[in-house]
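Ticket #496: bound-state structure for flavin-adenine dinucleotide.
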Amino acid sequence: MGFIKLFLHKELSKHLRGEQFIQSLDDGRKVWLDGGLVDHLPQHPAFSGTLKTISRLFNMLDEPGIRESIGFVPPGGKKYVHGSFLVPYSSQDLDKRRTSFDLWSRETHGMMSRLSDYGRSMITGWYAAREEIGKLDPHFESKITAYYEEARDKDLFLTTAILDPQIDRSNGLEDSRINERFLHVVKETSEGIIVRGAKMIATGAPYTHDFIIFSFLNFEEKDHKHAHVLIVPANSEGLNIVCRESFADHRAQNHILSSRYEEMDAVLFFDDVFIPWERVLLYGNSETVLKLRANKTANSLAFHQTVVRYVSKLEFVTGVAFAVAESIGVQGYLHIQEKLGELITQIDVMKALVIASETMAKPDKSGVLVPELSYIDTARNIGTKYYPRAIEILQQVGGGGFVQTPSGMEDFYGPISNQMHLYFEGAAVSAEKKVQLFKLGWDLIGSPLGSRHELYERFYAGDPVRAYANQYVKFEKESLTDPIWKLIKESSKDVY
Ligand SMILES: Cc1cc2nc3c(=O)[nH]c(=O)nc-3n(C[C@H](O)[C@H](O)[C@H](O)COP(=O)(O)OP(=O)(O)OC[C@H]3O[C@@H](n4cnc5c(N)ncnc54)[C@H](O)[C@@H]3O)c2cc1C
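RESOLUTION: The complex was predicted; output attached.
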């Protein structure tokens, strides 16, 4: 019986796409970590836990009963593909997109932000807006259609790398150091272009299939070789993926989150990488690139995912804060209740903004139902402040408990077991459970992974200062200032 089970499992796993995804990563990509090239990436301890998690998510698309919620069968297709590839034309379609984001986020407690559903949504958005964007370049429409279909049908894992290296932010391309090191074309051939330079930051880079790359600044015409929107396979010749230190920690009882949710971040070095023309979506005109980047349809579809994911994360942190408060019996104190209440308001505000963006969705010129971007922008902006505040509240609720934990769980079974059970006991929870809970809390507030998450939430959506300022710049100000001038005008005639 045991043998049959094992055999069946093996038979099944051969066909599951999680397994196929992992196998596909042994493709000659150059991933640099700790001073060397990573051999056999899927087995490497820096990635194995995370890949197991992603593999589980991919397999959900093959599971009857779940795949219907998380995916859809595209026209003419035979298998389910992820909902991030769905172009929404109705509120049911938007619901489906949200559900697909939500299911993956909940499976990972909102702790994995680049599960490719963001990158896939961006490609879907460009495809959805192909007619509009196609006005900028006659080849765009056919290129994005071919790539969208390939990414969708081959389950490609995608991530973005948008920013230029932080060399000297006070200077632009007039500085030769920057000009040479920001990604640019060094040669054009009949088959494609050859690019050199660097890009940062690419979360999930070591295990992505393709990078979505585009230039960030508004360049002058003379710098046209820096303007581009590219799709670059991770195993391209000359591409070096340079990882930061790994925060994966396989002591799962000590680091539940770090053992399974470490999304590596990397810088990409392009050492004369060839990109065929069919993967050069735009090139040579920074205004055109900026117009694509400002496309409302694409941005709404992609950014919608980021806010749905964010709600899961806030709920997770709030759940941990509630459990911590109860485990040490502080939940009855007014100031603790005030802080826990604040976490609930955070969740409600973010959820309300997601609902508002969907309820106020409007069709674009091609009939694509586009979530209202202003609510999504607001959610992304306040999110940069909510998460650090949520972590601060968690610290205030748990106090020193986060470091009053033993180094491992072994002492619960050793010579000091009785004392461990006695002194680590909680208000309404066993000593073992309380220690595990506080270790989970530490993985959020104090571990390298936890600190990285706080940085991530502050910056993942771009520079928060300029993003807030942009909301003001883009806002139709007369809608608020006209009533003020009207009141002043009226008051000059009135006598009170
Ligand atoms: C953990 C993590 C993961 C990330 N993952 C991804 C990813 O997968 N894909 C991706 O594309 N990006 C990713 N990002 C990058 C993110 O988009 C950038 O960090 C963000 O846009 C800010 O840019 P920067 O880090 O270069 O900061 P900088 O732009 O260098 O800013 C540093 C500071 O200087 C200020 N500053 C700099 N220039 C100006 C200016 N001109 N005017 C006013 N103030 C200025 C900023 O306000 C900020 O306070 C990630 C970031 C983090 C932290």
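RESOLUTION NOTES: The chain has three domains: 14-127, 155-284, 296-477.
TICKET STATUS: resolved
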